[in-house]
Automatic annotation (TrEMBL):
UniProt record similarity statement: Belongs to the RNR ribonuclease family.
Top-rank lineage group of the source organism: Eukaryota
Region annotation Disordered: where it falls in the sequence: 306-326
Domain RNB: 458-807
Organism: Knipowitschia caucasica (Caucasian dwarf goby)
Compartments (UniProt record): Cytoplasm
Record GO biological process: gene expression; mRNA catabolic process; rRNA catabolic process
Cofactors demanded by this protein: Mg(2+)
Protein name as it appears in the record: DIS3-like exonuclease 1
InterPro entries: Dis3_CSD2, NA-bd_OB-fold, RNase_II/R, RNase_II/R_CS, RNR_Ribonuclease, Rrp44_CSD1
């Protein structure tokens, strides 16, 4: 090892330049991480494949400016030098540096790090008078030459640099080491990766655009980080996440204190930030530091209704009460993501065509306009485009960014669906070849069969147990199966057998990484994106009837009379499901009807009768056990929140005729109860084995103040709701029924659901034990074990359970750290929230598409009955049962006019006043006064408020102060909804047809055609879900039913 000195020029956080001399050790052996190594390097971990045509070594400038191009998985064989990595760390900050580190860690990307400055022969000390950039370039070139020699000249090396001089100087020195520019590189080697070329030109345009910017200050400078930190410590400044109010994006933002601290004090620590100037270039989601203004300048929040505010929480801030108000003085961490923007139509066509700065409007109201320099301004108008923000200097009124890819023309179904995915950070590219290579090969000629070693190692239940599944009709991915058996001496054995996904998905494999990144299967209104490759989700891990499958099983021995659990067995099994039942079939067997069971049709009558008798007996026993389990939880206070109409799961149903039963079947409950039981017992098991590293799911009790809307509404109807415990709440909701109006109970349950906290994953070591409780299910410990095909949490839990069982044999078995597990839990919580948002947005999209082309005056579909469930300053909140919509109805117009009601109930606008009370609101005008009360039925007209830059929104307008007449003729839901779906699909097909006749804009327009047959079932389901609960709550419900 050779010792030398290295001089570093670092920048302190105050911006001062510091010269540091460091001892620097050089080694002969530094791993090359190439599979083509000729020198037996110690290459551990990721290596570059040997069969590539070349390796590429990007220069410092290229890594700094074009990292996002190097992130394309298509670009293989990248060697990042230590020199370039350090430059990113010093010049671009933590976020960009982490991005590079993640890239290097990610096995799906073909890139490695070469410690060139530690390698004796590639290191070059800086020469006297040599400028820093030139020296860095020389280092990178020297590293390139080293690789060429180290690999014995067998591999061409391409160094990419934007330094013209370097190209001339180095390109002819060595025959196997090419030195070219980024543009040439992309052109020569990756001509067909169009997206990379487009991104290249967009980034270079953006850089050009920044060069000629003004120098006048638009915002005050951010304070240096030492001052921010000192200010936070001393209590002078408050640190938190900036949260822009999407209804008043220009005006109102809150800074919410960071961390998972005590919730009750959190509210009082929110700081209001008013106006764009006070926000000082912070963007929604950024971690910021604010300074409070003097008390005299504190303001209150606005509480009048604005567009689409129906989703508001029940706990309202007191009206106009002044609260801590401040301004942003610094930003600790940017939290920028990819944004969808719309290029505005251009009204000045005679401007210069080249290189223009366009102010684009983000789809998300909370994000400020972004300035994009582009040469494609004409082509891009009215298109939705994905952009990234590059910078926001104090001299610039708006942030600068560059475009990444084009989604398509605004307003078209595919564009809008892709927009929803990007806005929720959902990336669902097809599974890569390398990932699919990890999967077993199966074909009709070569079906999968269990491995003899596995047959030995597993408990074989194929002959001993009658196993069956109960799912929605046509379900392809069967996660779970059940068994129930009489044991000698009268005891009962209940069994839950879950697909053994972790046998096929090894921890750390490419498939595992992809599944972890997705964290869940995504269900949109008309399509789904699977978490696992199809060969697993609908074949090897699907517990189909009549075939051998690996399972993870839980078997309970229950006392025959008391049904008390006497013992539990967990373990890996081999099963063969005998029946793949659907809910209706199982229920009709229970009801004593004699339906055709497909599995039995071909049997001789005697055999058939015997088997049918066994199956029916098993279903009855199962129902008996489930009733007992449910009663047990009910005594503990389990909640039934949804005003149930539909209970089935949201996935994989393709069969349109399988319309959802309006009455819930008991067998739904039975299956759900068994799954809840299994999840609970697995939670106990893994928590006992790993008290600090178990992954559980809890549901915190709601905050009492969130119940105020529910209580006000219930009181208006003469009910009182005791919300002190889940048990009392469940009891009161059960009682609060208006025999004249079923919507009343539905609405009260909806409000109760809205008041709920969200159920979340957590790691046991990161949360005090008293917070493990699951409020909704009334269980002290709970987790997700029963759906490993579509939820990553269950995959993690399966691994924990396996480790717990291994530990019984070998005490030394351990699992990862609390910190890692908590990080996984938070990641899954974030992805689940994104999945719910995307699902809700896609349903809203379909609703808008349905109403968009209808004429409200002539089309009777646009008129509907609505029920008032909330009173606001300038209007009411209503629920439209027929379409499952919620939203505001204004009683005062923007111009200040109020609604006046004629004697026949018809409504008009005239000048007058508005008086709000707790349970009613009254308008007064020359033509008299009219009062709108909670739970009153009114007639509304449904209009679509179109907006070229954002999502369309439904708009409800008051038509008559009376119930909608034809309403009583129609059942709730039913035909109308089925028609809605068909209609929207027909429109979308026509639009696709029109689009195919238009000249193509780009490949991206057609990029996502992986959606399967439109899934009517799930849309119907979702529309109904939406009617009943907020997005948060629908997740809980989904979990309770699939749990
Ligand atoms: Zn080597």
């Amino acid at each position: 090892m050779i010792k030398t000195e290295k001089i570093l020029h670092l920048k302190s956080s105050r911006g001062r330049k510091v010269r540091v001399v460091r001892e620097h050790y050089l080694r002969e052996k530094v791993p090359c991480f190439s599979a083509g190594c000729q020198a037996q390097c110690n290459n551990e971990g990721k290596v570059l494949p040997a069969d590539l045509t070349h390796y590429v070594v990007p220069d410092v400038g290229v890594v700094l400016d074009f990292l996002e191009i190097l992130e394309f998985r298509e670009i293989q064989g990248i060697i990042f030098t230590q020199t370039a990595c350090q430059a990113v760390q010093h010049n671009k900050g933590r976020r960009q540096y982490n991005r590079l580190r993640n890239l290097l860690r990610d096995p799906r990307h073909d890139c490695v790090l070469f410690a060139n400055e530690f390698q004796e022969y590639s290191y070059c000390p800086r020469e006297k008078g040599e400028c820093h950039e030139k020296w860095q370039t020389r280092c990178v070139y020297s590293a390139s030459v080293w690789y060429y020699n180290h690999l014995a000249g067998l591999k061409d090396i391409v160094m990419v640099t934007e330094d013209r001089e370097a190209v001339t100087q180095y390109s002819s020195l060595y025959s196997g080491v090419y030195v070219i520019s980024m543009q040439e590189y992309l052109h020569n080697f990756w001509l067909d990766v169009h997206a990379a070329h487009e991104l290249y030109s967009s980034i270079t345009q953006a850089a050009l655009g920044r060069e000629n910017e003004g120098s006048e200050k638009e915002y005050i400078e951010h304070l240096p980080s030492e001052l921010l930190e000192a200010g936070i410590k001393s209590g002078r400044y408050v640190q938190g996440i900036l949260n822009v109010n999407k209804h008043r994006a220009q005006l109102e933002a809150l800074v919410t204190a960071q961390g998972f601290s005590n919730k009750s004090t959190e509210l009082s620590r929110d700081v209001l930030v008013l106006g764009i100037k006070h926000r000082n270039r912070a963007i929604h989601g950024d971690s910021v530091v604010v300074e409070l203004l003097p008390r005299g300048e504190w303001r209150g929040r606005n509480t009048a209704l604005t567009e689409a505010q129906g989703e508001e929480r029940s706990a309202e801030a007191p009206r106009s009460q002044p609260m801590p108000t401040g301004h942003v003085v610094g930003i600790l961490q940017r939290n920028w993501r990819d944004y969808v923007v719309t290029f505005p139509p251009r009204d000045t066509p005679n401007q210069s065509r080249n290189s223009q700065k366009i102010l684009t409007v983000p789809w998300d109201h909370r994000i400020p306009k972004i300035r994009i320099s582009t040469q494609q301004a004409d082509t891009l108008q009215d298109h939705r485009v994905v952009v990234r923000i590059d910078s926001w200097d104090s001299t610039s009124l708006y942030p600068n960014g560059h475009s990444v890819r084009i989604l398509g023309r605004a307003g078209e179904l595919e564009t809008e669906v892709q927009t929803i995915l990007v806005e929720n950070c959902i990336s669902v590219s097809a599974f890569s070849e390398a990932q699919l290579k990890e999967m077993p090969v199966v074909s009709p000629e070569q079906p999968w069969c269990p491995d003899p070693g596995q047959v030995q190692a597993r408990r074989d239940l194929r002959e001993s147990h009658l196993v069956f599944s109960i799912d929605p009709r046509g379900c392809e991915d069967v996660d779970d199966t059940l068994s129930v058996k009489q044991l000698p001496h009268g005891a009962l054995e209940l069994g839950v057998h879950i697909a053994d996904v972790t046998h096929f998905v090894k921890e750390g494999s490419l498939t595992d990484l992809e599944a972890r990144a997705r964290a869940t299967t995504y269900y949109l209104a008309d399509r789904r994106y699977d978490m696992l490759p199809e060969v697993l989700s609908s074949n090897l891990c699907s517990l189909l009837g009549g075939v051998d499958r690996y399972a993870m099983s839980v078997l309970w021995q229950l006392d025959a009379d008391s049904l008390e659990v006497k013992s539990v067995w967990f373990g890996r099994t081999l099963i063969r499901s005998s029946y793949q039942l659907h809910y209706e079939l199982a229920q009709s067997l229970l009801n004593g009807e004699e339906p055709d069971v497909p599995e039995l049709i071909r049997l001789p009558p005697e055999q058939r009768d015997r088997n049918l008798c066994d199956l029916t007996q098993a279903l009855h026993t199962l129902t008996h056990v489930a009733r007992h389990l449910r009663a047990q939880r009910d005594r503990g206070g389990a909640l039934e929140l949804e005003g149930v109409e539909v209970r089935a799961q949201l996935d994989s149903e393709k069969n349109i005729t399988a319309l959802v039963p309006r009455q819930p079947l008991e067998v739904h409950e039975t299956v759900a109860e068994c799954m809840i039981f299994a999840n609970h017992w697995v939670a106990r098991k893994i928590q006992e084995a790993f008290p600090h590293q178990a992954l559980l799911r809890h549901h915190p009790p709601p905050r009492q103040e969130h119940f105020s809307q529910l209580q006000d509404c219930a009181r208006a109807q003469g009910f009182s709701i005791d919300t002190r415990s889940n048990k009392s709440l469940a009891g009161c909701l059960e009682q609060a029924v208006d025999p004249q109006d079923p919507v009343v109970n539905q609405l009260l349950r909806m409000m109760a659901t809205q008041a709920m906290s969200q159920a979340m994953y957590f790691c046991t070591g990161a949360v005090p034990a008293e917070d493990y409780y699951h409020y909704g299910l009334a269980l002290d410990r709970y987790t997700h074990f029963t759906s490993p095909i579509r939820r990553y949490a269950d995959v993690v839990v399966h691994r924990l359970l396996t480790a717990a069982l291994d530990q019984e044999i070998d005490r030394s078995v351990s699992v990862g750290s609390t910190r890692d597990m908590e990080e996984t839990a938070q990641h899954m919580n974030t992805r689940n929230r994104a999945a719910q948002h995307a699902q809700r947005m896609s349903t809203e999209l379909f609703q808008c598409l349905f109403f968009r082309d209808r004429h409200p005056e002539t089309d009777s579909d646009c008129l509907a009955d609505a029920v008032i469930y909330g009173i606001r300053d300038n209007g009411v909140l209503v629920f439209v049962p027929q379409y499952g919509l919620r939203g505001p109805v204004y009683l005062r117009s923007r111009g200040g006019e109020v609604v006046s009601v004629a004697t026949d109930g018809s409504c008009d606008w005239s000048s007058g006043t508005l008086t709000r009370n707790a349970d009613h609101i009254t308008t007064s005008s020359v033509s008299g006064s009219a009062t709108f009360r909670l739970f009153q039925h009114i007639t509304v007209c449904i209009l679509v408020h179109t907006n070229p830059c954002h999502a369309d929104a439904l708009n409800l307008q008051l038509v008559r102060h009376a119930p909608h007449k034809s309403q009583s003729m129609r059942p709730v839901g039913g035909h109308t909804r089925a028609r809605l779906v068909q209609e929207v699909q027909r429109q979308a097909e026509e639009a696709t047809l029109r689009a195919s006749l238009r000249p193509k804009l780009s490949r991206e327009e057609k990029q996502f055609s992986q959606s399967k047959q439109p899934n009517l079932y799930s849309l119907l389901e979702e529309i109904q879900e939406l009617s009943l609960m907020s997005s948060e709550a629908s997740a809980q419900r989904l979990c309770a039913t699939t749990a």
